[in-house]
Specification:
With 163 residues, the chain is α+β, with helices and mostly antiparallel strands. 22% of the residues lie in helices and 33% in strands. Helix 1 runs antiparallel to helix 2.
Length: 163
């Protein structure tokens, strides 16, 4: 890389521009090929808590389309549902028993796209990976269709006792 840069400094301006363009292209390609995509890192956050705390796990809709269903899950549990919110209310039927009466949406109206999860009285058993998923409705000229998404937010919750 240093050799290329040295050549750029000592060459004509046309050749210099081509070499700079090549270097930039190499840098962009190498950053795209190394590691996880930037989108994944942006949507994953870590939160620490102590037992007994109430915790907000943040999640926001990616656009202005209304959410039909909001689903918070913990993939390591069976059933994995932490909160399923549909038809403007929580659906406790397929919810993991350890979260009953301890979770709710921060704003049931989802004002400004806020679909954050409030988890009350956390314990060390609540530590884990939480995923926020939404289904949204898209209106087209001919019909309405439901759009489902991969997780739009992943929260890694770490609940540890203090010494």
């Amino acid at each position: 890389m240093l050799i290329l840069m040295f050549c750029c400094l000592s060459s004509s301006s046309s050749l210099r521009m081509k070499m700079i363009s090549s270097i930039l292209l190499l840098l962009i390609l190498s950053s795209c090929l190394c590691g996880e995509p930037a989108v994944t890192k942006q949507r994953e956050i870590k939160i620490s808590a102590v037992p007994g705390q109430n915790v907000s796990l943040p999640c926001r809709l990616p656009n202005n389309k209304p959410a039909v269903v909001v689903k918070w899950t913990r993939p390591d549990l069976e059933p994995e549902n932490v909160l399923l919110f549909r038809d403007d209310q929580p659906d406790p039927e397929i919810q993991h028993p350890s979260f009953r009466k301890r979770v709710e949406l921060q704003d049931r109206r989802m004002k400004d796209g806020d679909v954050s999860l409030l988890l009350s009285n956390v314990t060390t058993n609540d530590s884990g990976k939480y995923e926020c998923q939404v289904s949204q409705t898209e209106a087209t000229d001919r019909k309405r269709r439901t759009l489902t998404s991969d997780p739009i937010r992943i929260v890694l919750l770490d609940v540890q006792k203090t010494d």
